[in-house]
Amino acid sequence: MAKPASPSKSPPPSSSSDAPGAAAAPVIDIEKVTKTYQTGDVTVQALRGVDLVIQTGEFVAVMGASGSGKSTLMNILGGLDYPTTGEYRLDGEPISRLDSDGLAGIRNRTLGFVFQSFNLLSRTTALENVELPLLYADVPARERHKLALESLTRVGLADRVEHHPNQMSGGQQQRVAIARALVTHPKVILADEPTGNLDSETSIEVMTLFQELWRAGITIVVVTHEPDVAAFAGRVVMMKDGKVKSDRRQEPRDARQALAQAVALRQREVAEEAAEAPGAANDAAAKDGAAHNGEGGRL
Ligand SMILES: Nc1ncnc2c1ncn2[C@@H]1O[C@H](COP(=O)(O)OP(=O)(O)OP(=O)(O)O)[C@@H](O)[C@H]1O
Ligand SMILES: [Mg+2]
Fold first, then answer.
1. Could you tell me if 297 and 269 are in contact, meaning their C-beta atoms sit under 8 angstroms apart?
2. How many angstroms is it from 230 CA to the middle of ligand 1?
3. pTM for the complete prediction?
4. Ligand nearest to the CA of 239
5. Average of per-residue pLDDT across 16-44
6. Is 70 helix (H, G, I), strand (E, B) or coil?
7. What domains are defined for the chain?
8. pLDDT of 297 higher than 90
9. Mean predicted lDDT score pLDDT of the chain
C-alpha cells in the first residue's frame, strides 16, 4: 500500500489496534475541523476544531455525551456533509476540492455506512436491500445478485436472502445493513450507534462481525454510548462539547469470547430458573429460544 500522502503529521501513539499486516496509511485525516449549524437565530457550534487521523486497519470507537458532536463528526467523515472550516482528506483526497459528483464517487469507492435504525427498505427482501448500492452504481443485474449473495453469506445470512426486514430479528436486520455496507468492498465502515437498538447479547454478535471485518483489514469507526461496546475497539476517541477530549489505545476485548461467555451465562440462568420452578421449565426454555433477552440478565 502507498505511503501516506501527508507525512507531516505524527502517527497515533502505537499500532496495537492495527489488524495484522495493516499498512500505516491514514485513510481518514481531518485537521482543525469545525461545523456550525445556523437554525433561525440559533447558532450551534457542533464541532469546535477536531483533529483526527485514522490509519488503515484501525478499529476506533467514538464516545461522548449526547450532543457532543459524534454524529456531526461521522457525517463529515462519511462525506455526507462538509466542514464549515478545516481540512478533510479521505484516502489521501482533500474533499474540499471535490464537487458533489467527485465526493459521491470517493464515498462509494471508500465507505460503507451502518446506522442505529438499520435503514432497510421494508417492502424489499434482504437480497434486494443489499443490492441497492450496486444498483446506484449501475452494476449489471447478474453481478449485483452475485455480489449481494456473497455479502449476505459473509455476515452469516445466506439462509435469509428472501426474508423481508419484518421477518428478521433486530440483530439479523443489522447484519443485512452491514452486508449492504460491505457489498461495494469499502475500505472503511462508519457505524453510528449500530448496537443502539439491540439487546446486549445481540450487540456482542454485531461487534463479533465488526471484529471479523477489522481482522480482514477493513477500517472500522463505531459511535457508541456503551463502554461495553467500545471495549471491542483498539482505540477510543472521547468527544466533549465538539472537541476531542481524549484519544487512547487499548487492548481490544475479543468479541467472540465475550459472546460465548454471554451465551453461557444466559443458559445457566435459564437452567437455574427451571430448577427453582420445575413447572416453569418449559416457559423458561421457550423464552430463551424466542429471543436473546440478555438485557435484563441478573447475576
Ligand atoms: N442539522 C442540524 N441542524 C442544527 N443543529 C444540529 C444539526 N445536527 C446536529 N445539531 C446540533 O449539533 C450538536 C451536536 O449534535 P450531534 O448530533 O453531532 O450529537 P451526538 O454526539 O451525535 O449526540 P447523540 O449521542 O444524542 O446522538 C447538538 O447540539 C445538535 O443539536
Ligand atoms: Mg448522534
1. yes
2. 21
3. 0.85
4. 1
5. 80
6. helix
7. 26-253 (3.40.50.300), 255-299 (no CATH)
8. no
9. 88
